[in-house]
Amino acid sequence: MHHFHSEQWLGRPVEEVFAFFANANNLQAITPQQLKFRILTPGPIELEAGARIDYQLTLHGVPLQWATLIESWEPPHEFVDVQLRGPYRVWRHTHRFAKEGAGTRISDDVDYELPLGPLGRAIEALWARREIAKIFAYRTEVIARRFS
Fold first, then answer.
1. Among residues 24, 2, 22, which one has the least CA distance to residue 14?
2. Closest CA to 131 of 57, 70, 22
3. Does the model's pTM come out above 0.90?
4. Which residue from 26, 57, 77, 78 could staple onto 35, CB 3.0 to 4.6 Å apart?
């Protein structure tokens, strides 16, 4: 199992920041355009424990279907989504929102594993970790602009 961690501080109240993430339509805004991210689940989507979101994206020209389940939902402090169907063997993303000073600390922890055993581990080392970091770097930029 591999782990990715990202943090960001925003000078906005935790309730406001969480509300942005509680709107599934904002997923497209924080995903790099080259991934051609598109939500397939008809809206409006009510995010809560047990909610499922189906979407499509394109990774290096290959269209992928992805389905996630909101495993836990604890507004305005935390939620967890897990991959039900997609490119990973395991994908578990914990989103945390904590009041810090006059703002909010966003923490993302992703536990993931690629399929294909040793080949998957090689792909992770050579490519996947960097791709995940790029996606989160883009997301950090977009969120910083959105809340500035």
1. 22
2. 57
3. yes
4. 57
